[in-house]
Amino acid sequence: MKKIILGVWIGLNTAAAAFASDLVLWYDQPVGAAVSSLLTTNPGQPALGLGGGKPSSFISEALPIGNGRLGGLIAGGTAHERIVLNEDSLWTGDENPGGDYETMGAYQMLGELFVHLPGHEIVTDYRRDLDIGDALAHVRYSANGVNYSREYFCSHADGVLVVRLTADQPGSYSGSLEMKDSHGAPTVAAKNRLSAAGSLSNGLKYEAQLIAVHEGGSLAIHGSTLVFSNCNRLTLVVAAGTDYAMDPASHFRGADPHSRVLKQAERAASKKYDILKAAHQKDFHALFDRVSLDLGKSTAGQRSLPTDQRKRLAAATVDPQLEELLFQYGRYLLISCSRPGGLPANLQGLWNDSNRPPWHSDYHANINIQMNYWLAEPANLAECAEPLFDLVDSQLPAWRRATAAAKEFRTADGKQSRRGFAIRTSHNITGGMGWKWDNTANAWYGQHYWEHYAFSRDARFLARTAYPYLKETCEFWEDQLKTLPDGRLVVPNAWSPEHGPTEDGVSYSQEIVWDLFNNYVEAAEALGVDQSYREKIAAWRDRLATPGIGSWGQLLEWMTEKHDPKYPELDTPNDHHRHTSHLFAVHPGRQISMARTPELAAAARKTIAARGDTGDGREWSFAWRCAISARLQDGADAHRQLQQLFSDRNTCRNLFGLHPPMQIDGNFGATAGMCEMLLQSQDGEIHLLPALPAAWPAGRVTGLRARGNFIVDLEWNGGRLVSAAIQSPEKNACRVRYGDQRLDLKIKSGGTVHLNGNLQSD
Ligand code: FUC
Q1: Nearest C-alpha neighbor of 677 from the set 661, 666, 688
Q2: What does the pLDDT average to over 512-540?
Q3: How far is the CA of 14 from the centre of ligand 1 (A)?
Q4: Residue 371 C-alpha to ligand 1 middle, in angstroms?
């Protein structure tokens, strides 16, 4: 039996063996327990995290729930539960055309909810978990002979965060509820509710409301807290909002949040808990259940370990069910932080426990936000990508103004650029931008617009949303590209992100503009519009300088190989930089492929091998490398890169990507990389199991999407395809590939074609 006394853990855990469900993150300690334990036993010594030897942080341990807009991070404390509350539009800053990182503002923490339960200091059989297959978090323990249980979720259906406290004996709940605003607004208690309302320095108004519904016992106000005595059960409902509106015409301000928040809280509090839970389940399952993955069974030993201990071992020994969990965690997190009508996932999704988060928890446009959305299309969560398009579209007027005013974008004749817009490396949600121009980020965002169409074939989206964006961005690049004496076109003053000198024709920028032009041409063809402009852009695409191959067989990151005394390792086999920007053309781009450009593909492989496992790589680096190796059809390396993500350097105990203290792009990138290992469709054919690693000898996946509006199910055994089912909601045709076999298929509207491992129809 395991016992906690004031955060000190003693004894053995009997609960562990029972907790082996496949899609559950679970722990036998509350957040911070290891730290408190060390502080208690070694007063005066620095706090150490569980075995990692590094200080622990709340955000790396707490369990995340969210409804796309509102989020909670759950500590799972027994005598003192702490839930950090987030609302994704709570941002300081404004439109700042000067591009000053400090005045750009930062994503803020909303507040904290505390449940104080005196007498729950000494507990046994403790467990906290997050069931990502059901979007429910739990805390369970026994104290004073009572079995206590809590369930938590954040409902998109009702717009609220819900906590339900139950016990197996009546009258067992006595304690208090406290809500703390992160910006000093007072909490007001009235009847059965707590509320806090305030405004930020930029005038953004916000409000949070908690309503407590108690069953049995009593509830009373004490100062700014609610005190409950001898209750059987409690249901807590939290609603929150701001007056942010994703609308430049109203300067990003909408209605005062008060009445909306009040209504949401009251409506939810008037419903029975089971009704709230059922609505949440229905909404969540409609998205989550579209894809299932089975990579084989983990050992009983692996399955018996709490997630934090288990994941560390998985860096060295294959743990198929934990890999499956990581895959589905990316999908769970995207569903929980990016829903139509809301804001896109920022650097931390929407989970933030600080008012000065790293990198302002902003939208970083040189890899990070793009990586957040790589999984959306293939992992069958396309609607979760809509917030990205909505936000970007809403920022365009401000970005156009900032670009027109910038000296960096003067046209060749010395005049200001009048067409299009550029984006800096970081931006906020109100037209403001931060650090350094990332010239080709506009074109990279364009890839997402194109891919949303390429997967769905939604002609309306293409015509109304994607095409105008792509065309305007082409016009920007028409004005900006520079012609070399030999006629090749180059992006001037380009930067391979965060690595080495700025100069013309950097591979990263060349490849991204190539991708834009290529996507534009296909978009114009699909719509049958702008023939002469389409032909011009196709010709310009073919004149863009392409990346070269260097002295040790690597893909060149700059037009010429660097021998720079300032950066002696630059462009050498010892260059272990975290960015692999010049491999954009392999993934997520499609300019380099094994079939069409085998020499460049081989050079890309050299580069990725040299980047290495240690050095400067961060969580997102390994996710990106996993996807790149998958595109290079190297399943073994793709899997090796994936495994790096389980190391203590790259993943937190709650499986959030670890870029101190946390960053979410690695989570989304890992899911996307695994999709690439199982199915690809960027080259005009549906390629089944293109990078299956030996580590996954047998398995099954259902519900992955392929470009062209197809859904694909696959089963394999002994490392070989056993069966495939390809379905399309429309009358459709495709070429299917497995290994070197190819088959042209026609599918009836709403039909499914079943194939065996030799690509023969059943
Ligand atoms: C990129 C990376 C950093 C970090 C930051 C948010 O610029 O180079 O490692 O992930 O984004």
Answers
A1: 688
A2: 98
A3: 42
A4: 12
The HSE-up count of residue 349 (CA atoms within 13 Å, CB side) is 34
pLDDT of residue 43: 28
Instruction: Supply the pTM of this predicted model.
Output: 0.95
Nearest CA to ligand 1 atom 10: 368
Q: Is the pLDDT of residue 151 over 80?
A: yes
- Mean per-residue pLDDT of the chain: 93
- The answer to whether residue 412 scores a pLDDT higher than 80 is no
| Residue that the structure tokens 């722990």 belong to | 27
For 541-555, 557-571, 683-697, which range has the lowest pLDDT when averaged over its residues? Answer: 557-571
Q: Is the CB–ligand 1 distance for residue 368 below 6 Å? A: yes
CB of 541 sitting under 6 A from ligand 1:
no
Q: What is the pLDDT of residue 415?
A: 67
The per-residue pLDDT for range 18-32, each reduced to its tens digit, is 334 589 999 999 998
Tell me the one-letter amino acid at 289.
D
Pocket test for ligand 1, best of 363, 435, 438, 578 (most atoms within 8 A of CB): 578
What's the number of CA atoms in the CB half-sphere (13 Å) around residue 480? Answer: 32
What does the H/E/C string look like for 393-423?
HHHHHHHHHHHHHCHHHCCCCCCCCCCCCCC
The answer to whether 128 and 33 are in contact (CB under 8 A) is no
348, 352, 367, 437: which to mutate for ligand 1, most atoms within 8 A of CB? 367
Probe residue for ligand 1, chosen from 659, 664, 667, 668 as the CB with the greatest number of ligand atoms within 8 Å:
659
Residues 6+ apart with CB under 8 A from 710: 681, 686, 726, 727, 728, 732, 734, 747
- Altogether, the residues listed in the chain come to a count of 762
Strands (E) in 280-337, as ranges, are: 292-294
Residue type, 715: E
> Is it the case that residue 6 has pLDDT exceeding 70?
no
Buried b (16+ CB within 10 A) or exposed e, 670-704: bbbbbbbbbbbbbbebbbbbbbbbebbebbbbbeb
User: What ligand 1 atom has the least distance to the C-alpha of 359?
Assistant: 6
- What does the alpha-carbon distance between residue 298 and residue 449 come to, in Å, rounded to a whole number? 38
List, for residues 628-647, the tens digit of each pLDDT value: 999 999 999 999 999 999 99
Q: What is the CATH number of domain 12-92+101-289?
A: 2.70.98.50
Give the pair of three-digit tokens for residue 125: 């059989």
Q: Are 135 and 200 in contact (CB under 8 A)?
A: no
pLDDT for res 37 = 34
Cα–ligand 1 centroid distance for 665 (angstroms): 10
CATH of domain 380-642: 1.50.10.10
Using a 10 angstrom Cβ sphere, with 0-12 exposed, 13-18 middle and 19 or more buried, the burial of residue 518 is: buried
Q: Give the Cα separation of 542 and 527 in Å (integer).
A: 22
Q: Report the distance separating Cα 544 and Cα 524, nearest Å.
A: 20
**How much distance in Å is there from the Cα of 310 to the middle of ligand 1?**
27
> How far is 628 from 637, CA to CA, in rounded Å?
9
Is pLDDT of 72 > 70?
Answer: yes
347 CA → ligand 1 middle, Å: 9
Contact criterion met (CB below 8 Å) for 324 and 696: no
